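Section 3.1: Structural characterization of target chains.
Under the original work plan, the team committed to producing a structural model for every single-chain target entering the pipeline before any wet-lab resources were allocated. The record below documents one such target. The sequence was received from the expression subgroup and is listed exactly as submitted; it comprises 363 residues.
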Amino acid sequence: MITNSEKKQAYTMAIKNRLSGEYSKFQKQGGTVRGLCKTLNDTYGFSLNIDTLRNTLSSANHSTLDLFCVLAVCRYWKLDVSYILSPPENQEKPMHAAEKVADSIQYKVLDDPDYLGTYYGFLFSNKEDDATLHRMTLVISRAKDGGFTADLTVESVVSGKTGAMPLKKELRGVPILSNFNRNIAITFTDTLGNFFFLYTNYEKYLASRVYYRKGIAVTSASTAEREPVMQTFVLFDRPIPEDKLRYIPGLLQPLQKSFPISEKDLQALSEESPLVAQLVEDFQYLLEHHREVFYHINEVSILAEQSPMSKPDRLRALTFLKEHAATPSKFFFSTNLAENTQFVRDFLLNESANSEGGGEESV
């Protein structure tokens, strides 16, 4: 029968062996216990004894294990403390910190000071068939250790028993820059388990301020299954005036060189807006040249109907049809579409620009 003393020794050695593995990597990179002790004491304010630290990191010493030394090196090497202190029989792999993953040749924490600041953005609701706008506020700031952090607030209105209620989610993440493809990725989380992912391209601006960004947002749906939802988001370096919010849904559509619209909707919008009517009149020749008839194929209805055609055959046929659907199979979130960028700069963010489009009534 294993005694308590033996259990304690096995627990101690499991922790020491995990730390010893990290210390070996540290030594191979030229690190020394003396330099490590000095860094921990000077940078993080610990008061560690060099001999105690050396014995804690040594797998040959079976008894010395100082808790302050363990916590100090875990913080410095960005180790998963719960894994390091787990029982000897634990088989779970450690959770790597985002900062440690980014600390490599391929990735790094964003450090461009032009990106520091507060940004205001939008995305659609995470409910199906709901085009309500959710507001985002993204704050990129410098942490105490010099790295950049990102705080995201998402505001929406939900329906409750007492009526409409405001809902606010506050999440935190680290902006990561890929040195290979020059894109920025931020994974946000909170204590409740909410997950939010933003992905956009990076531009090194000669002039300060990143006034407009468009990219991919991934979150979970507002359903019982909480399945992943992917959509477009937009960010600006200042709030958009309320009378110009009507243009945001159009910007939230994925970037496309062309987009389909039904003849019924085109006629209705032409009657409602002189701006659309003028565009249709001035470019009628282009619209007619590209005019086509489209069929809206409802998979659910086709599969639910009674038919001599088997469901497997219907599914195969639908799959073939999807290959030729008008919906694009991929979207490129590039800044090369200068028209969108100019529209945001010269109209949406220009306080002197008339939101009514030069005196005409709103769209």
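The two ends are 81 Å apart (CA to CA).
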